[in-house]
Amino acid sequence: MKAANTIALALSIAAATVAAPAAVMAAPAAAKPTVILVHGAFADAGSWNGVAAKLRADGYPVIGAANPLRSVKGDAEVVANIVKSVKGPVVLVGHSYGGAVISTAANGNPNVKSLVYVAAFAPDQGETALELSGRYPGGTLGQALAEPVVLASGGKDFYIQQDKFHQQFAADVPKAQAALMAFGQRPIAEAALTEAAGAPAWKQLPSYFIYGTGDKNIPAAALKFMAERAQSKKTVAVPGASHVVMTSHPAAVASLIEEAAQAK
């Protein structure tokens, strides 16, 4: 009996020793924030492909929002609805005009933990994208636009001329790739560019900025001004990069997004 009891005790100790590490390993890791990528004018969600691939490889859930490019308020409502559908924390990322959209969309959504502006507008209340882009010299977008498309509503849609798209919008992207981007560009409504922004979320949320010093759509000086005004937690200026810095330098953009996601 004594031998049997000794064997039983040894087996129970061994079982406990094995079970303890298994229980520790089974503890769920904290879920990573979902990254919502919002494209801007003359682009689509595909402009984020390189960034999304890096984020997904690093374990981040990613959503590429389809930005209607019709009005700041209306577009922000579309993005805000996507944010509301996500369970858990969100990092909102906007490119170009998409920056104005995320500045509004984050309001009233407590699960948004930070904002990342990628060559993007961060307007204050009452400001417009059109006014901000012309506040500093260096922008040449107006000269590259095609004749506007007149809509049935009386409004206008703007495109970049396809033969000028490469140099204007994506000078540091291979020519063949830029040609496909020009072909698939999404137009923006004039009303969206001239609509005054509402109260900006960057006054309450931590913000991060990255842009290229070779941007011809939004002058680098304007981007620097907006980053400083928003008291950016970190600002990255990529030497010589074009307006589509997320396409030409996806690793740098993804790195900043991950830094925003990991910040406490």
Automatic annotation (TrEMBL):
User: Is Kinase there in the keyword field?
Assistant: no
State the EC number(s).
3.1.1.88
> Which stretches make up the AB hydrolase-1 domain?
35-255
**Signal peptide residue numbers:** 1-26
| Pfam families from the UniProt entry | Abhydrolase_6
UniProt GO molecular function: trans-permethrin hydrolase activity
Annotated keywords: Hydrolase, Signal
Q: What enzyme class is recorded for this protein?
A: hydrolase
Mind telling me which PANTHER family this protein's record contains? AB HYDROLASE-1 DOMAIN-CONTAINING PROTEIN-RELATED, ESTERASE_LIPASE_THIOESTERASE DOMAIN-CONTAINING PROTEIN
Name by which UniProt lists this protein = Pyrethroid hydrolase
Q: Which organism is it from?
A: Duganella phyllosphaerae
Give the gene name. Answer: pytH
